[in-house]
Design a protein that fits this description.
Elements lengths: L16 H18 L1 H13 L6 E9 L6 H9 L4 E8 L4 E7 L11 H4 L4 E7 L6 H10 L8 H7 L9 H10 L1 H9 L5 E5 L10 H10 L12 E2 L5 E5 L4 E5 L5 E5 L2 E7 L24 H7 L10
Parallel strand pairs: 1-4, 5-10
Antiparallel strand pairs: 1-5, 2-3, 3-4, 6-7, 7-10, 8-9
Helix pairs in contact: 1-2, 1-6, 5-7, 7-8
């Protein structure tokens, strides 16, 4: 998956780059507003280096039914030059994931954040609804009406569900078979998590081992499924993620329960062996390990496990 070729000339298209960046800004604002612990970690990182944050990827969850799957979100971003980078399949979770590489845009030497920094990769998952039991399919289809997925990006920026809020009874029934599907039914297109690009930091957090240690010392709960520091088989991709905090939600039948919200991740991509002799100050993103790792991703997803006992 992915390509290690040198970047071509600007691939941005679809209209105003400022508009695209504003969409991301609003998706981020909604995510931080709805997830206090993630916001606290985000503010901690921001405070370390004059707000010079860079993002590796933004991740979303969808339901593959009646136009609500991956395409409902990806079509908008592909109109602006995003390209499919590859996919990962998780048969046991009845899940498919595609990731998308951003268009080439001009980034100033000190460009950072969503204003003038590198655009994040996108990771979009979809529950393969047709592979669920008839009971679970019935619950999902009861809420997701045809054609509603066209409003996916608007839903993500606002943090509002396109469909009616589910009942606690339906939510729990669905969660028995697929916690992933249940999470998506109640949270919709709100960003599931963002990942910082650790390798782009200029301060102490440029070492993911220090990130892990610092977050642990601060008392943040980290996902230890498959070890806290998740390393790809080639040793070139490192990931650390928090555990989603549980927040109260009032369901359509009046029941209020605490359920997992979103989490936050740190990703470090090492320089590829073939580029090991490139001077450090000349290293660009394309010199680094691209794509994602199946095992790492499988463990990172457990950050929203309902019965977390990490």
């Amino acid at each position: 998956m992915g390509s290690f070729d040198l970047p071509h000339s600007s691939s941005f298209k679809g209209g105003s780059e400022i508009f695209l960046r504003n969409v991301f800004e609003n998706i981020l604002k909604t995510y931080l507003r709805k997830n206090p612990t993630a916001k606290t970690i985000w503010e901690l990182v921001q405070s370390l280096d004059n707000e010079k944050i860079c993002y590796d990827h933004f991740t979303f969850r969808t339901l593959k039914v009646d136009g609500y799957g991956i395409d409902s979100l990806s079509s908008f971003f592909m109109d602006y030059g995003y390209k499919s980078g590859g996919g990962l399949d998780f048969p046991k979770k009845k899940l498919r994931v595609l990731w998308f590489s951003p268009p080439d845009v001009h980034v100033p030497k000190d460009g950072h954040g969503l204003g003038n920094g590198p655009l994040p990769r996108l990771v979009i998952a979809e529950v393969l609804v047709d592979e669920l039991s008839p009971e679970s399919q019935g619950i999902i289809r009861k809420y997701l009406k045809p054609e509603g997925g066209k409003q996916a990006v608007l839903s993500s920026t606002l943090g509002s569900l396109i469909w009616e809020k589910p009942t606690w009874t339906d939510f729990m029934q669905l969660a028995k078979e697929s916690e992933f599907a249940a999470w998506t039914l109640i949270h919709g297109y709100t960003m599931n998590h963002l990942a910082f690009a650790v390798h782009r930091f200029k301060h102490r957090f440029s070492d993911i081992k220090f990130v892990k240690q610092h977050l642990e010392e601060k008392g943040f709960k980290l996902n230890s499924d498959g070890e806290i520091l998740k390393v790809s088989q080639d040793g070139l991709l490192f990931q650390v993620s928090s555990i989603s905090e549980r927040l109260p939600v009032t369901f359509a039948d009046g029941v209020t329960e605490t359920i997992p919200a979103s989490y936050i991740e740190f990703t470090q991509r090492q320089v590829l062996p073939k580029f090991k002799d490139v001077p450090h100050d000349e290293i660009k993103e394309f010199h680094r390990r691209e794509a994602f790792e199946l095992d790492n991703a499988n463990h990172v997803m457990e950050s929203t496990r309902f019965t977390t006992k990490f």
